[in-house]
């Protein structure tokens, strides 16, 4: 029996496990205020998961916001030396509109960011940690990978204006081949249709796409994806697949992007990717990759209800020796079970055994 794990909710157990995982790989915890200046979010609203931000005016007249995102704050506060790499993880509450209720909600979010002079190892490490994070929640996880470089290169071949280009990328995200045909009746969209159809095991998908990746940009992106998935396969990340319907905003993201799923939850619980373009927009001349786990989604996990509210209920009366009662309750608690002392029985309280405290200590049970 683990008394700590037995009293934690599923999402709390996940946080406890993930914190240890990230620390073992040398990531330091990032702590931040609940507030940020609203200007941090005005220019990057498309990057935010939620389209709403709670604002208020501070005593000095500044417009402040309850933070809807952690990544932007990490970038803002990053102080990197040339050639260095900063590795951070976080457990923070964010404030955003819930997708289910459309009301603002306080959400615990955990994740990590790797920022600086990144190389292939850093990229593989972060994606491996994403897979390990999902595995710690449920061994039957799926981590879908895509590459924005491949998507961008194959769409560029069509020579579309900005509006049609964005619409085609949206269709790729929806796996909507018919939509692509309607948008581009005058174009050969065979490569895009191949991209939409290509999903599954990495080695199979990559080989199917090689004939369509003929430009230098497409070949380089596909090769990077091949290298990363090869490393993941060598490190027993069995739940990794390739699926090009994972597309993020190309104003912020480049390179590999990914989404994680676990059994019993229909939507993604983890998302991440490379966001060098966001770094550039915020005046940082370096690379970045990271991911976030949406802990509100984990509230849907099936948590077996406890048969009892407390293992042991101890009844005492007004004449009880409080010092002796305190010692007796502490002794029971040290046995590793939960114990509750009170003067009367609450009809709604479920308990496994009932003990009574008298002049001689714990006298008898029922």
Structural class: alpha+beta
Q: Share of helix among residues?
A: 25-40%
Alpha plus pi helix count: 14
- Low-confidence segments, given as residue ranges, are none
Q: What distance lies between the first and last C-alpha atoms, to the nearest angstrom?
A: 24 Å
Spatial extent as radius of gyration: 26 Å
Oligomer type: single chain
CATH architecture of the largest domain: 2-Layer Sandwich
Tally of individual domains: 3
Biggest pleated-sheet summary: 9 strands, mixed
Going by CATH, the homologous superfamily of the largest domain would be: Bira Bifunctional Protein, Domain 2
Could you tell me the CATH topology label of the largest domain: BirA Bifunctional Protein, domain 2
Order of helices and strands: HHEEHEEHEEHEHHHHEHHEEEHEHEHEEE
Strand order of the largest sheet: 1-5-6-12-11-10-7-9-8
Which of globular, elongated, flat, extended, rod-shaped describes the shape? Answer: elongated
Number of separate strands: 16
Text of the CATH class of the largest domain:
Alpha Beta
Structure, described:
There is one protein chain. With 366 residues, this protein is of the alpha+beta class. It has three domains: 1-137 and 274-304, Bira Bifunctional Protein, Domain 2 (BirA Bifunctional Protein, domain 2, 2-Layer Sandwich); 142-261, Bira Bifunctional Protein, Domain 2 (BirA Bifunctional Protein, domain 2), CATH 3.30.930; 310-365. Helices cover 37% and strands 25% of the residues. The chain contains 14 helices and 16 strands. The protein has helices spanning 3-7, 10-24, 39-42, 71-77, 120-137, 148-156, 162-174, 177-183, 190-197, 202-209, 216-234, 276-281, 295-298, 322-334, and strands at residues 28-29, 35-37, 55-57, 63-66, 85-97, 104-116, 142-147, 199-200, 240-243, 256-261, 270-274, 287-294, 310-315, 339-342, 351-358, 361-365. A nine-stranded mixed beta sheet has the order 1-5-6-12-11-10-7-9-8, with helices on both faces. It has a four-stranded mixed beta sheet with strand order 14-13-15-16. A three-stranded antiparallel beta sheet has the order 2-4-3. Helix 5 (120-137) crosses helix 11 and helix 6 (148-156) runs antiparallel to helix 11 (216-234). The longest helix is centred in the middle third of the chain and has 19 residues, at 216-234. The two termini are 24 Å apart.
């Amino acid at each position: 029996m683990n008394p700590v794990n037995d009293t934690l909710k599923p999402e709390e157990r996940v946080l406890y496990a993930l914190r240890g995982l990230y620390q073992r790989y040398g990531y330091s915890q990032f702590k931040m205020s609940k507030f940020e200046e609203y200007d941090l979010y005005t220019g990057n609203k498309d990057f935010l998961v939620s389209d709403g931000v709670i604002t208020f005016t501070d005593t000095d007249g500044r417009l402040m916001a309850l933070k809807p995102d952690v990544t932007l704050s990490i970038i803002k506060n990053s102080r990197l030396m040339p050639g260095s790499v900063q590795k951070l993880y976080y457990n923070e509450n964010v404030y955003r509109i819930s997708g289910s209720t459309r009301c603002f909600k306080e959400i615990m979010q955990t994740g990590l960011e790797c920022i600086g002079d990144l190389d292939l190892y850093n990229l593989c490490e972060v994606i491996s940690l994403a897979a390990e994070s999902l595995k710690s929640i449920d061994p039957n996880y799926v981590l879908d990978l895509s590459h924005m470089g491949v998507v961008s290169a194959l769409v560029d071949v069509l020579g579309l204006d900005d509006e049609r280009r964005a619409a085609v990328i949206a269709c790729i995200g929806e796996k909507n081949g018919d939509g692509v045909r309607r948008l581009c009746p005058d174009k050969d969209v065979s490569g895009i249709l191949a991209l939409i159809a290509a999903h599954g095991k990495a080695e199979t998908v990559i080989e199917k796409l090689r004939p369509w990746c003929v430009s230098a940009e497409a070949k380089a992106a596909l090769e990077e994806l091949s290298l990363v998935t090869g490393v993941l396969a060598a490190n027993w990340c069995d739940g990794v697949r390739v699926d090009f319907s994972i597309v993020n905003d190309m104003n912020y993201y480049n390179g590999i992007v990914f989404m994680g799923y676990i059994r019993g939850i229909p939507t993604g619980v983890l998302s991440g990717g490379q966001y060098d373009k966001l770094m550039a927009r915020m005046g940082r001349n370096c690379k970045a990759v990271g991911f976030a786990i949406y802990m509100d989604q984990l509230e849907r996990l099936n948590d077996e209800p406890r048969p009892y509210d407390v293992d042991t209920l101890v009844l005492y009366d007004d004449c009880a020796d409080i010092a002796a009662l305190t010692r007796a309750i502490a002794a029971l608690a040290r046995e590793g079970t939960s114990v509750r002392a009170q003067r009367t029985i609450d009809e709604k309280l479920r308990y496994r055994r009932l003990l009574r405290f008298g002049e001689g200590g714990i006298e008898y049970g029922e």
